[in-house]
Amino acid sequence: MYNSLSNSPIWKSVMVTRQLPEALSGLEVLCKNLWWCWNDSAKALFASIDREMWHNSGHNPMVILDKVSIKRYNVLAKDSAFLAQLGAVMREFNEYMAKKSERVEPSVGYFCMEYGLDTSLKIYSGGLGILAGDYLKETSDMNVNLVAVGLFYKYGYFTQKITALGNQEAQYDAQDFMKSPAQPVLDSEGNWMKVRVGMPGRDMFARIWRVDVGRTELYLLDTDFEDNQPEDRQVTHHLYGGDWENRLKQEILLGIGGVRALRVLGKNPTIFHYNEGHAAFAALERLKEYVQQQHLSFSEALEVVKASSLFTTHTPVPAGHDAFTDEFMGRYLAVFTGYLNIDWRKFMSLGKVNPDNTEEKFSMSNLAANVSQNVNGVSMLHGEVSKEIFSNLYPGYLPEELYISYVTNGVHYSTWASALWKKLHARVFGSDFQTHHYDKSCFDGVYQLSDEEVWDTRMSLKKSLTNTIRERLIDATMSAHYSPKQKVAIAEAWREDALTIGFARRFATYKRATLLFSDLDRLDAIVNNPERPVQFIFAGKAHPADGMGQDFMRQVIEISKQERFIGKIIFIPGYDINLAKRMVQGVDVWLNNPTRPLEASGTSGEKASMNGVMHFSVLDGWWVEGYKENAGWALPQEARYDDANYQNELDASFIYYIIENEIAPAYYNVDKSTGRSSQWIGYIKNTIAKVASNFTTNRMLTDYCNQYYIPQSKRFESICSNDYAITKEIVAWKDRVCAEWNNIHVISCKRPESSYTLSPDGMLKSEVVVDLRRLKPDDVGVEMLFTTVDRHGKYHIQEVSQFSLEKYEDGIATFATSIQPERTGMYDVGIRIYPKNDLLPHRQDLPFVKWL
Fold first, then answer.
1. What one-character DSSP code corresponds to residue 401?
2. Model-level pTM greater than 0.70?
3. Of the given ranges (356-360, 559-563, 820-824), which has the lowest mean pLDDT?
4. Could you give the CA distance from residue 55 to residue 57 in angstroms, rounded to a whole number?
5. How far apart are CA 317 and CA 242, in angstroms?
6. 305 phi/psi in degrees, rounded to 5
7. Model confidence over 74-107: pLDDT tens digits?
8. CA–CA separation, 364 and 359 (whole Å)
9. Where in 108-182 does DSSP place strands (E)?
């Protein structure tokens, strides 16, 4: 009997969790593995449970399973058709997962700040994350032995809302982790597994979560729980959020905490891949392990860590690389000098060009480069740009001869190709395509498709895009930037059959979202052409701190409201993975016009190409390699003018001209008897066969395996064998070279004559006599470079002639060469000496150079 009663309601919180009927238990398995998000059979299964709920949930099976009634489950458990569908999907899934046991070495640990896998897991902001998510999916499909590490953000990146004035509002909604595909990692006693990371005067703890991405495991670290102090709990609140001190703590957690998490989990990958410099602190923890546990010297540990590390840079401008002050580094990481048995200057030299310069910040990208055997950019052009960015680390070498290379980004075919296209491709690409181990020439199978089915597929996808546009505009909470009257006008003006050009990406200023609006009268004539109308759809987010980017977005919205452009130019808010899919699948042409050469790679156009959507872009990023005639359009690669405004005006004129004279005429070149443009259909087929085939993550991952993972794992195994014998030999040699390098004395140097006549019998000769002191002739190389200078004052190597040893006596070595240049002309000729050892992976591994 109660002692007290109340006239007011008394409530008690009661948690009710789902318990599916045994016949439906497979749904629990499927919803906890993101394999479902790129397999149409699994998505169709979840959609069939409740189509409206599936749609409203944003295609999140965890939400579906929580919201569906017990009554509906009981019906499904007795529905023979549904059970047969579930059984088929489970067999497909189980057969796929069974091959995980066949994974082989080398194993890879992949570190990244963000992962764009699905909208149900909001731990991504843009291109870097989407690329990383696609990469994990491909490692699963190709069964590459990779484990990934990241952070689990409570709020993730922001949800975009647009006000009536066209202003972007960033809305941060806390993720319900229990309605995400992430699962707590528990030990054998049921306790949540954690890692500890030192902070000034305290420890910070992180819980470990696991996300299954098909066969690939992604582990996420989360600090927002009661073991931590408030300032540490917020470390994993926002992706790229907070001040620079919080960013430092995030990167310490990702790198140092990430390695510790792998060790706690019993994971010991051979290769560590740092996807951007954010993760480079992982190398400090690994150095500590080798020094403290294997009793190697710092120099020996560095050789081992470098041999097994790869750094991928995605940033095309120096200012985009994270860097921290000496004060922050000292407060948070000075303890590592003791762990590594080195002084502060040596420690800071890992991330600084001049460790004595207190004004220079500690660069995470320099750290990543200094602790990695290889560095790569993400497109051919970006590889060259990256050589320039990192050239200050290797002052004796010209940027073009640096070891930095590239692997051009790709996209995950199964994620971005529409279900309609995948069905057609499966019919004509051949059986090997389904195994994920295929020759890219299989994409030529698209030419077997009839014009009718290609055209009908494109029209169906355009219709789906139109439905998405209308739905997004109806949602007043998301799209207040258009009035009800304007929305009606848009619905009436928008045409499913009109040439549709899409532009969707991060609204960074260098991407020039407003370039199209340079001449509004000419644009008016294009969109309102009575015979060949063109319509444009824009979407994207600007960083909350990027005022100029938000201004660009506002300009797009304001122009789209003008009477002459209403329904011809529209801005769709709430840009996310789902909207991106609809756009890259549904538009006819994908527009991209960045400022050269600031697009490191760009992948949105690659996603579009998977669906036969032509790319129209500046020749920058991936499009330098991707452009093919009759499979897209290109603006010139080289900027012609230093005046940015004048260059923008010129580029805009190119865009207008190509739309008016090439794109629109081809699209509307319709055969009246068929209602189709055979010319346009030819472009679609060319795009899939000649462009899309080269820019899949399948090709990308194959490149990483062949260029980096496999060769580095072999070298790593070699230098670690026999108690690190080769490692110790390399370190001893480097120590000897370092000790003697400044003592090397050039006795004489006979340079080439200033004037030389090219003839069959004449040879240009040179001789260098050097006192090598304690070094041997085999320890050095001598070479002569023939270079030319371009209009920007940059040197470019035309020929290199290696000197051979002519005589060696009492420490005095004579080197000589003779060469007949291939071409006449004016050369700048230089001679240099450099350390040489076949055990080094490349010359910049010990970047000493003496120019004579």
1. G
2. yes
3. 820-824
4. 5
5. 22
6. -65, -45
7. 999 999 999 999 999 999 999 999 999 999 999 9
8. 16
9. 108-111, 146-151, 159-162, 168-171
